Amino acid sequence: MSDLPVPPQIIHVDDDEDVRDQAREYLQKEEIPSWGRPTVTSVAAFSDALGELETRRCDLIILDVRLGGHDPEDAPPDEEEGLRTLAAIRSRRFVPIVFWTGLPGKVGHLAGPVVRVVDKGAADPLGSLLEAVRASFATRLPLVNRSLIRLIEDEQRRYMWDFVAQHWEELEADGDHLGVAFLLAQRLGRSLSGPGIRGLAATLGHLGENEPDEGKIHAAEMYITPPIEGSSHGVADLLRDGSEAESVRWWLILTPSCDLETRHGKRKAEGVLLAPCLPLREHPDVQALSRADNAGNRQKVKALLSQATDGQRDRYLFLPAAPAIPDLVVDFQMLRSVSGDGLDAMERVASLASPFAEAVISRFVRYFGRVGTADLDAAALLEGVRQSLRNSAAERDN
Q: pTM for this one?
C-alpha cells in the first residue's frame, strides 16, 4: 500500500465510452508500486481534460492522438488534437503523458521517459497500458512533482495565514500589495533551500548512495540549472563551449554581474573574464594519485575535493558533478577574456547559487590579492626569544 495520503490521480481522454470504461475498471484494480491503486477520471473530449487539469491534482494523463477515425491519412501531424492538447498541457503544468492510441506512428517521435506511446492494437492493449503507467511512476517524476507542489503550497499557506492574515490591517494601510507578493516570492525561494529541501528529500524517501550525511549538502544544491529564464549572464555562471576549435569546454564567469547587464543593446563590459574549468581527472594532484596511491597524494586530493583554502590552494576550486555537469576544477591562474559575441556563442548551462557564487569571487580575489614578502629568519628569532626568557629567569634567581 502507498504511504501517500492521496492515491495516484490519472486522467484518461478517449471519445469511445467502452474504451474509457474498460481502461478505468482495469487500472483501478491494479497496484502501482509504492503508490497503491489509482483513481482514474475519464473524459470524452480533450477540452474537458484541460478543464480537469485546472481543477484537480493529476499525476499522469492518458491521451488518444485523435478523437474519431484512426486512418493515418485523415489529418496531418500538426493538426492532431492530441498533439495540440499536449502543447496546451505543457503550457500549463508538468505532468507525464501516456499516448494510448491506434495511431502510434503519429507520436512515436515524442516517446521517452516523460511521454510514452502505447499501441491500442497490441496483443494485450490494457496490459501494455498498465506497463507504461507503472513505468511512468517508476521514474519517480510524479512523486518529485507532487512533493514540490506540496512544499510550495505549504509555504504559501503559512505565509498567508501566519503573516498576511495576522498583519492585514497594517498591510492594507500601507497599500503595497506588490511588496507582499515580493515577500512571498522571496520566502518561496528560500523555502526551496536549506530545511525546505531537506523536507523534500524526506518526503521522497531514501535517495540512495548520493544522499548527503547530516550537516552536508548534495552537490546539486550548488547550482541553478538551467539558469533563470530571462536573466542576464552573471558572475559564477558556468558555460560550455561547443566549438570544435577549443580544447577547453567549460568556463566560469568572473566579471561582476553589474558589468554584464545590457543597456541599449550593449554590455558595459567590453571584455568578459573567464576561468577555465578542466575535468577533475586532469588536475595534477589527481593524476599523481593515479600514478601513486599513497597517503601524501590522497591528502592532496582530499584537500582539493573539500575546497580547502590557503595561499596557493586558492588557485583551484573543485565543482562537484551534478545533473548535466561533470566533476570540474576551476583554475584561477589560466584566465581568458572574450568579447560579448564570444560569450553569447557559449551555452549557459548553470549559475552557482548563493552563497557559492560569492565564495567563488572571494576565493578569486584572495588568490590574486596575495602579497608576497621575504621570509624572516624564524630560527634566529626563536633563539632570541629563548635567550630573553633565560635572561629573565636568571634575573629572578638573583
A: 0.71
Whether the Cβ atoms of residue 319 and residue 277 lie closer than 8 Å to each other: yes
**pLDDT band, very low/low/confident/very high, at 70 (cuts 50, 70, 90):** low
Q: Cα–Cα distances in Å, from 80 out to 12, 111, 115?
A: 17, 16, 16
CATH number of 222-368: 2.30.30.110
In the chain, CATH 3.40.50.2300 covers: 9-139
Domain with CATH 2.30.30.110 in the chain: 222-368
Strand partners, 350: 238
Amino acid letter for position 148: L
The residue among 190, 179, 182, 180 whose CA lies nearest residue 155 is 190
Cα gap 4→205, rounded to integer Å: 11
CATH number 3.40.50.2300 given to 9-139: yes
**Residue 100: in which H helix or E strand, if any?**
strand 97-101
SS3 for 22-84, per residue?
Answer: HHHHHHCCCCECCCECCEEEEECCHHHHHHHHHHCCCCEEEECCCCCCCCCCCCCHHHCHHHH
- Three cell numbers written together for 145: 512533482
Measured between alpha carbons, how far is 31 from 284 in angstroms, rounded to an integer? 53
The one-letter amino acid code at 261 reads E
- How far is 86 from 62, CA to CA, in rounded Å? 11
Residue type, position 3, single letter: D
The CA-atom distances, in angstroms, between 201 and each of 208, 236, 355 are 11, 26, 21
DSSP 302-367: HHHHTT--SGGGGGEEEE--BTTB--EEEESSS-EEE-HHHHHTSEEEEEEPTTHHHHHHHHHHHH
pLDDT digits (tens, 9 = 90+) for 317-333: 999 998 889 999 999 99
Residue 347 identity: E
Residue with cell 629568519: 377
Q: In what order do the strands lie in the sheet with 60-63?
A: 39-43, 9-13, 60-63, 97-101, 115-119
Above pLDDT 90, what percent of the chain?
A: 47
- Higher model confidence: residue 59 or residue 71? 59
